[in-house]
Amino acid sequence: MKLHRARKERLFVMDGSYAVEDRVLMSTIGRSIPSPSAHVLVAASDDRAVVHARPIQARSTIHAAGHHSPTPAGPAAFPTSKRWSWLADTYWYVPTANLPAILYNASSGESTLVSDQTVFHIEGYSKGYFWGKAVTQLGSTSASTSSMLGSVTPEGQVLLTFTLTSTNSSPSVTQGFGKMTKRFGQWTMENQMFTSPTEKLQIGHWAYMVQTRPGMPSWVSLPAVGESVPAFLSQ
Fold first, then answer.
1. Among 70, 77, 130, 206, which one is least packed by beta carbons within 10 Å?
2. Does residue 222 lie in a domain region?
3. Does residue 196 fall inside a structural domain?
4. Which domain of life is it from (predicted)?
5. Which residue ranges in the chain fall short of pLDDT 70?
6. Number of domains in the chain
């Protein structure tokens, strides 16, 4: 069975119609735990470590005739940080279904839902760490740009830090948490974030952020903002 194959998926777009976009299915790496009574040898490969289990005393299967035959032990695959090296130079955005975010006014105690389109450009990746740029637009307000630094474990747990610097105030840091999750055959970043609780206006948002690339409808017109990805990131 091929580990990589392309297929067509129907994605919902803002005007209520459906557009067909090419989706590349990323291969996943299985995981199993060797027997406690085993000598373990680890051999590194491109994107995983292969554990060869050699049982000290092989278990037996009892047949009807009373004969015993050892149960064979096979290799178990464990993910490594190289699993996510494909994140370098990728673009991510918020799909229509996950645009709503919550705006909380700490002074009045009032909260309201606003549209939050955020686009990541992950510029580089190395040994489980990645970095780049994030641009966010709330409702019809002006977009803001932050530097982004993140980490992802071999199992797919994500930690994000966004630093927003302006000439009128000290840097504002927002942290987010996430997980690489497959939906409809494609990797997504299932992210959650809240701005600093010291700010009077706090923003909370969660989303299954998905990839976009040239040739896809989302690359030409982002949900909620109607701009192309290059134009949105140039702000």
1. 70
2. yes
3. yes
4. Bacteria
5. 1-76, 166-169
6. 1
